Amino acid sequence: MVFSSLEFLFLFLPVMLLAYFSVPWRLKNIVLLLGSLFFYAWGEPVYVLLMLFSITINYFLALVIDRSPGTAKAKAAIVTSIATSLLLLGYFKYAGFVVGIINDVFGTDITDPHLPLPIGISFYTFQVLSYTIDVYRGRVPAQHNFIALAMYISLFPQLIAGPIVRYKDIVADLTGRSHSLALFSEGAQRFVVGLAKKVLIANGIGQLWEAAIATSEPSVALAWLGIVAFTFQIYFDFSGYSDMAIGLGRMVGFRFPENFDYPYISQTVTEFWRRWHISLGQWFRDYVYIPLGGNRVSYAKWVRNVFVVWFLTGLWHGAAWSFALWGVYFGVLLWMERSFLATVLARLPRPLRHIYVLLIIMISWTLFQLDTPGQILGYLGDMFGLSGVPLGNAEAAYLFRSNLVLLFVATIGSMPILRNLNRRIGTKPVVQRAALPVAHGFLLVASYAYLVDSSFNPFLYFRF
Amino acid sequence: MRNQHLPITAVFLMFIFGFALLDWVTPPQDVSEFERRDLAQFPVITLDRLLSGEATADYATYMQDQAAFRDELRFFKSFIERRGFLKKENNGVYVAGDRIFDKFYGINHALIERTAQRIDEVVTDIDASPIYLAIIPTKAQMLDSSAYLLSDQYEIADTVAATVDATYIDLMRLATPGNEDFYYITDPHWTTDGAISAYRRLAEAMGLESVTDYDFEVATDSYIGSEYGRAAAWNIPKDTIYLAHNEILDGMSFCRFRTLDEADCYDSVYVELDDDTADRYDIFLGGLAPITVITNDLAPEGSELVVFKDSYGHALAPFLAQHYRTVTLVDFRYIQRELVLENVNLDGATALFLYSTSVLNTDQRIVD
After folding, report:
1. ipTM surpassing 0.85, yes or no?
2. What residues are paired with B153 via a beta bridge?
3. Is the model's pLDDT at B329 over the cut of 90?
4. Model's pTM, two decimal places?
5. Looking at the structure, do residues B181 and B292 belong to the same domain, yes or no?
């Protein structure tokens, strides 16, 4: 089940909220857990058992670690936890990819198992690992309450697409969170904004990207229009989903970490990755980069660390060489910026730095979203006029005109203009009592109208 | 910030609980009048269907189809698209002023060439003479191509005319600005006016003296064509279907062959439709069929016309039938070519191949 669906909005969510706020405190976690399992089982009726298996085994392994810290037993338990989690992730996500590599390298004919990817496995596996590793490191005690742990891993707001909530960041809320009208209202506002970002902007602009890649009349202008559209689509899609997750969390008393911070205003690629999918970057920093030595090692090892992290970041997004290449592409850029490019960039005017970042990002999305090297090179060839296509044509002109308002809204929405405006005038009573409730009501009804009439409602990060 | 918490929470809760309740209490509808289709019903729930995910997927469709105020919400979405985002289209159709136009964009050259070759093979195989060819443009051709994304429909007509060995009659100018009334506002088909105009051009080219004297009857003034639900625009009026009458037309009868052996016969070219018939255009010869035969006892004996056509032919054929004892309509999308050649008498008949650009551009079935 996804948040931007009618069954979530008008079946799951009302029943969940009613049940959650009707029961006494001691039953709230059970309600949340049962609701979360139902939420997951709605789309994955069989793989919910896989998630329960992962929760159960790691619950016991963490207890073993907690009882005998620093011992060989604890070491064996953490190795088992990491191995089990990575094997499950590897088997379900990477089996086909690995089989393909083996067949290519050794000329074998092993059959690709074509396993369907359990929804959200990349996200909840990383949450499980953050829990057992932090217990092993002694940063948090093991959770003795199975329900609390199961709820942490399966909590429906962040189960499918994050943010990747680390256990230590949420442990206090698991057993002692508070509820208030203010928190609920903040959550509702955040949810509504996220829903509108997803349904009104991402889905609309996504159709422009679809038109650009499906065209029989390619042109330079259309290629750029398409990649600009995808740049907006993936941001509003994913950050919208994160907003909804954070909002839903607040409604039931959880404060999830932020996942996006206006990434397209960045002036360096390094800054972009501090603002884009923040929880994933932090996870790789804490559980891969720093354990490898981070930057407190020799230059050669630091370079290795950067590339290992970005190679893995790429592969985390998908089991394909194009994703690995996408990760390494960013690894190279971050290495270059850290080594010399940042100094050069600092001397450039701000607009040029923005253009540099946006250009890098847009090129990266071709690697990310197109499937084959032929498609990627073909699209880049169109963008840079290397494939003999005309500069512009009627289709590009029409699609530009037809999406001009949407592109404008997306541009404004990807900058902190509205946030700053809200800070300025949001304290005025008329804004608080009338304008904001009316605006949120409008966004809700408009999103509902689009959901009722839409057959185009993809969710890009679902497949990770 | 405190002032906003209560009103925003109230708005949010009223929205999710209000619509949930409305969805719950609103009885499910069987069909959508505006979209002209059956709506999804509550799915069959079995363990197998739950485990396979089919039941939940069907439930999602059910919720979408049976959403309370579905029509109003779809119109609201269209309003935001066109007035808010200033788009010219909604769900793949253009809304220009108070009319709907198809988004005719993208020409399937390979399909058109194959279809034209297949039509030419039929022309070679049949003994009919003379043989005519006419291509019907869609109303999108009337739009300003600098403001809308459109393909040139003449390309299709030119390709087919150049390939098929038949006398080509140009109907492409039917869809020029000023002729809006030749097409329904809410449907791709031509109106009775449009069909009469096409008939006059065809008659002139075929050496027939066209009949000009008609009385008109309003069959319905609330026709909802297939594009109405896609556009979902409040300002679009419903269509009026006019039926033309004169002594010759009123004397015609026709049989609609469901198979080669089974036919429904009528003593008027206009069929009385049940109230629940979604497509009121079916009033013309009862809608699509593999073979339809119109008989006009007032025409000279032995005069025969065979029309190979798509649905546009239904509103037109009775006018042509004013000059022929029998007019046989063949729809290759519903019958194999070999069966037609074996069972339809084409000896000495006049033949007309009459296809719309939209069918030539998208429909594989003429080739298959």
Report:
1. yes
2. none
3. yes
4. 0.90
5. yes
